[in-house]
Amino acid sequence: MNGIKALFKVRGTYTGIMAAVMFQLVFFSVWLTAYKGVQDRTDHLTIGMVYEDQDSEMNIGEEFEQNLPFKVKQYSSFKKASDEMNDRKMEMIIQIPSDFTSSLQSGERPSIYYWINQANATFSKTMMEQAANQLNRQLNEKVFSLQKTAGETMFEQKLQQLPLEQPVAQALGETVQSVFSTIHSEPVEGVVKKTNAVDEFSANLVPLMVIISSFAGAMVMIMQIHEAAETIRSAYSKWSLFLGRQIINVGVAFLLPFLTIGLMKLFDVATQEPFWTIYLFQGIMFLSFLMFAQVFVFLFGNYGMVFNILALSFQLVTSGVLVSKELLTNGYQGLASFLPATYGADGYYSIVFGGNSGMLKDNIWYLLLITGVTFILAIGAVAVRRNFKKSDRSVGREIENENIQ
């Protein structure tokens, strides 16, 4: 019992209990509010329509627009639509080839292509594939019905023109009905093509895994270094300790990418960018996480952990890894622009899946901007903090030397 009483006299005990409680409260509150009503906002997602068949009288494009719960954008060329999909401005392209109508009229089985970008949130990719299959089923039902009705009508017209007795005509009609029943029930082939795809399913988890491990690691590292700095703060000036902490931050940030890249190589995760690009991106991303996490610690001390737990949860739901940002409420979408995980996840989609390499450079600039702003805020927090007197630092150094000895 004496041990328990002693532990409850230490502030760290209450901090640890509070952390367990806050993780539950924060994750339930943020995740369940962020993802509530996601399926009601599917009209925020965009699908490109490339209608190359100009001779069709079926108005397939209009039919698709009426049945799709997404925003539909028309494109005159597949290349333009493909470029915008690589920029992650849309989730899928529906391409109706120029020979669609002619193939259908000649008795062949035409194809419609559904191009789905794999460099997107897991939920969105699954939704697009389901939508493609459903659209193709609906199209086949309509085309099959039109073919059957047109054939029956044409046969009846021809049959009425022939001088046949009623029993013979009836028997012949039944035979034709039997022939029509053998018509292919799926006259249109739906071809799903996955762009920026990877062979290993585990590669889909890399953006999420890197975000979680990087920010959680940064959060814990900042807290531990803060604890270490607090134990020796009486021996050194606040600016000396601040400078030392920043040197450690930069050093770890640009050593960690060697481990990250090495682990991806070890587990056969294919990358679409050269080594130094990945190294630079990972280093800047981790540095931005460190700077972001340390601001709350400088402002609130150990209680800054609560804000970092909140920041971790916000970043996971708004990064666009599990669910596209477009499906979130406006408030969460706006918040995503200020969080480093948004640009970290987007960058890793380019690294692992490919697409537009220029987006990776944009993400680096945004991460540098966040790093600079949070660094300035940290300087401000340190500036208003009280410094120990010289006499206190002298005593602190003596205590430190005794501990070392």
What is the secondary structure topology, with strand pairs?
Blueprint: H1 2-7, H2 11-34, E1 46-51, H3 60-67, E2 71-75, H4 78-86, E3 92-96, H5 100-105, E4 111-117, H6 122-160, H7 166-180, E5 189-195, H8 206-232, H9 238-253, H10 256-266, H11 275-300, H12 304-318, H13 330-336, H14 340-353, H15 358-383, H16 390-404
Helix pairs in contact: 2-12, 6-7, 8-11, 8-12, 8-14, 9-11, 10-11, 11-12, 11-14, 11-15, 14-15
Strand content: 5-15%
Helix content: 55-70%
Number of helices: 16
Please trace the helix and strand order, writing H or E for each element.
HHEHEHEHEHHEHHHHHHHHH
In terms of quaternary structure, what is this?
Answer: single chain
What's the end-to-end separation, in Å? 33 Å
Strand order of the largest sheet: 2-1-3-4-5
Dominant shape: elongated
Sheet with the most strands, sense and barrel status = 5 strands, mixed
Rounded radius of gyration (Å): 31 Å
Stretches where pLDDT falls below 50 for ≥5 residues?
391-396
Structural class: alpha/beta
Mean pLDDT reading? 83
Number of strands: 5
Descriptors:
5-stranded mixed sheet; alpha/beta; single chain; 405 residues; 7% strand; 16 helices; 65% helix
Q: Can you walk through the features of this model?
A:
This protein has helices spanning 2-7, 11-34, 60-67, 78-86, 100-105, 122-160, 166-180, 206-232, 238-253, 256-266, 275-300, 304-318, 330-336, 340-353, 358-383, 390-404; strands at residues 46-51, 71-75, 92-96, 111-117, 189-195. It is of the alpha/beta class and 405 residues long. α3 (60-67) links the parallel β1 and β2. The chain starts with a helix and ends with a helix. The model is unreliable at 391-396 (pLDDT under 50).
